[in-house]
Amino acid sequence: MSFASRMIGTAALAVVFAAPGFAQTPSSAPAAGGGEMSRAPIASEGDVIVIYSDRQDVDPGAYSVISEEDIAEIYANHPAEILNTAPGVNVQMNSGQELLMAIRSPVLPAGAGQGSFLILENGVPIRAPAFGNVNALFELHHETAGAIEIVRGPGSVRYGSNAVHGLLNIIAPEPGGEDGGTVTVSANTLQRYRLDATRRYVVGETPMFAALSLTDDGGWRDASGVDQQKLTLRSLFKGADWSAVASLSAVNLNQETAGFIQGREAYRNEAISVANANPEAYRDAWAARANVRFEKDLEGGVLTVTPFAITQRMIFIQHFLPDQSTEKNGHDSFGVMSRYDFGSDMVRWSVGADVQAADGFLKEIQSRATFGVFPKGVHYDYDVKTLMAAAYAELDWRPHPYWSVLAGVRAERHTYDYVTQKAPGTTGRFRVAPSREDEYDLMTPKFGLVYSGFGWGTVYANYARGERAPQTSDQYRLQNLQTIETLKVETLDSFELGARGKLGPVNFDVAAYTMAKDNFFFRDSDGLNVPNGKTDHAGVELAVDGYLGAGFEWRANAAWSDQTYAFSRNVGGTAEDIVNGAQIDTAPEWLADLGVGWRGEALSIFASAEYVGPYFTNAANTARYDGHLIAHLRGAWKFSDSLEAFVIVRNLTDERYADRADFASGADRYFPGEPLNATFGVRVAG
Question: How far apart (Å, rounded) are the C-alpha atoms in residues 408 and 464?
Answer without folding.
Answer: 10
